[in-house]
Design a protein that fits this description.
Blueprint: H1 2-20, E1 25-27, H2 28-34, H3 39-51, E2 55-59, E3 62-65, H4 82-89, E4 93-95, H5 97-103, E5 114-118, E6 126-127, E7 132-137, E8 146-151, E9 154-159, H6 161-170, H7 172-175, H8 177-187, H9 193-202, H10 206-219, H11 223-233, E10 241-242, E11 259-260
Parallel strand pairs: 5-7, 10-11
Antiparallel strand pairs: 1-3, 2-3, 4-5, 6-7, 8-9
Helix pairs in contact: 1-3, 5-6, 6-8, 6-10, 9-11, 10-11
Amino acid sequence: MSVLVKSYDYLEEYLDSLRSKGRYAFSLEEAKEKFELSDKALNQNLFRLKLKKKIIQVRKGFYAIIPPEYAAQGVIPYSLFIDDMMKTLGRKYYVGLISAAAIHGAAHQQPMESFIIIEKPALRNIKNKKLKINFFVKTGWLEDDIIQTKTDAGYINVSSPELTALDLLYYIKNTGINRTASILRELVEEIKPGKLQKTAKSYSQVAAIQRLGYLLDAHLKNEQLSEAILKALTAKRPLVVPLVPGREVRGEVNTKWKIIPNAQIETDI
């Protein structure tokens, strides 16, 4: 028993030392390297810390530290551990979609779940009473489209406003047309025409570019940004696609964007 108690004290001190370095998370492998304990003893001590609500298991083999200021919530914001976790997994990533929009000040309602873009292979979503993190797989991206954003734990990778806008239309089935249109109405203030044209030019999903162009033009009436999209489309071969995939396709084709507007857009702003 004394060994368990002693090692448990060491673990608490270890958490304090990590926090003093600005870290809010650690992996099981790190703890194993730090302490000469059996797997059983280490797991027992980690379980005690979980019961005391000092840590929370984010995924197998990875834990977030709960400092006093987050004790009531029982969890810390994903932004404080996501970079640590992805480095532990050896995975490229960026915070995207609605989460990125919120960071850019374009989500009038703080999202209750987080959206992370990764390369293959896929990662299982994290979903429990405290956390909901959605992982979306994508085939590569330009580093120029990723912004390093500062947090209390260091830096996280976040999609630029321009990449965020395109991704929202790429993953439209997950984000929803009305929510996407509401976010875009605010996000356009952060989007630069020249950067948008460059990002769209290299974006592989042509349908997403068309859909974004259509919304910027027909719905938001933003001529400057829609023209930037149109210029990027000249080097591509767009086909006729519905505004919202998976819904009934009917209606007159918008010849400028080759979009069938098969949804009535209702924003909540």
